[in-house]
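Section 4.2 – Deliverable D4.2 (structural model, holo form)

The reporting period included a commitment to supply a predicted holo structure for the target in complex with flavin-adenine dinucleotide. Inputs used:
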Amino acid sequence: MPWTILPGQGQSLAFHQQGSAMKFDVAILGAGAAGMFVALAAQARGLQVALIDPHAHRLNNFAISGGLFPAAGSSLQRAAGNADSPQAWLDDLRQFAPGMVNENIASAVAHALPLATDFLLQQCAAPLHFLPDMVAPGHSQLRFHCVVPASGAALHGWFREACAQYPRIRCLTEPAQVQRLDPGFELRVGSDRIQARQIVLAGGGFGANAEMVARFIPGMAGALHNGSPTQDGSTMALGIAWGAQLWGMDGYQGQGHTNPGGATRLGMSIPTLGGFLANRQGVRFVAEDIGPSALAPAVLAQAGGVALEVFDAAIEAQLGNHGAYQQAVKAGQVITAPDLASLAAQTQIDLPTLERTLEAVGTFATGQAHDPLRRQVFARVLAPPFKASWVTGALSHTQGGLLTCADGKVLDQQGQAIPNVFAVGGCAAGLSGRGADGYLPGNGLAQAFGLGWRLAQALT
Ligand SMILES: Cc1cc2nc3c(=O)[nH]c(=O)nc-3n(C[C@H](O)[C@H](O)[C@H](O)COP(=O)(O)OP(=O)(O)OC[C@H]3O[C@@H](n4cnc5c(N)ncnc54)[C@H](O)[C@@H]3O)c2cc1C
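Output (structure tokens):
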């Protein structure tokens, strides 16, 4: 088998061909949410792990993310008195994304998530909490977990420190070239030579690869990408070169609560708490609680590709632990208005139209009228002082990838496992696909940790 040069890394690596190879049970390409989780779970089983990531100095999607993941049936959730179950989460997923669920992995992920969460808590002493105030569209229960206050950067930081501390995990930060042996793999990582019996492809999705986005998700070609530039599809390309089958390549996690420019976002909870969106004309255009992902193309379809997310101080008071929202406030993205006239003046939206929109939303909230856009729940009648923020639609994270079985083994065109090749996270097929509509909030980390748990148990 020839060496496979991963895209963008050149071929001029110093490599001491004669040096003796370091031997590992498994080499993991990518130290993000999925790769680091698998490393922790694999080392706990006594396996020697090489964890390789040439972009360790850059923010990956895990560090950019909200860090929020569902774990229906975790011990933390039970202790908080929430009756939930893996089956209930699975039912929500199937109802949210009918006909679009990756049934190869969905049930396994559902049942693995509480085990993965309890593993992090009990064996790794992760500072995880159940979040009783994290309401999310599409979820029938409160079931999100994270550090407190919720922050992907903080959770990522904990994972990174944990991986550095276990002696069975060797962290390597140079680009890898990979050769398939029979059996196993040889990798050149900088001047190191590594042999591993198994390989895990965990380099994330392809949201930063303009050519792949144009090919697989043409509707988002050229759209704002608020994920990490490390999402170049390079480990997916490795699986493709080895004959892997792809699944759900047009699926993506959109983000319709992104502030223009993409540096901050409001988080997913404001519509569920009672907020609404209006376009530049002051008119509502979508059932806002369809979820942050499906909102993205709906917002992009409005004039200027933007909308105003309107809520009030009472809703803001419930967002104290929502890290993404707090960052948006710090960045000056949230407008405060003592009354509607002030909000209209600050946003240059026609006041009479905005008044009519707010009045209509009030009648939906009190049950006096039904929303023609078919939104079912308006949690409260908004009252001054008002809050608002301009948002746009962004592509956050691609969901399609290498098709795997429930244990993360990569499948070929005939549905057979490619020997010793595993994939997880954005590199692997996600939980549900097709456009932005199928992404249930939390699907990204749910797959990274849930499939990661199953994969780590399947490694030998
Ligand atoms: C704005 C935003 C908000 C999000 N919020 C949430 C949320 O709240 N909840 C949720 O569930 N999901 C969320 N997600 C999705 C979540 O971040 C991803 O599902 C998750 O990070 C996927 O894990 P991963 O390990 O595949 O990718 P990453 O975490 O991005 O890690 C991939 C790693 O692979 C490395 N890499 C790339 N190429 C190579 C290579 N060739 N060799 C070696 N290493 C390589 C990269 O440097 C990177 O460190 C969000 C995403 C974004 C962008």
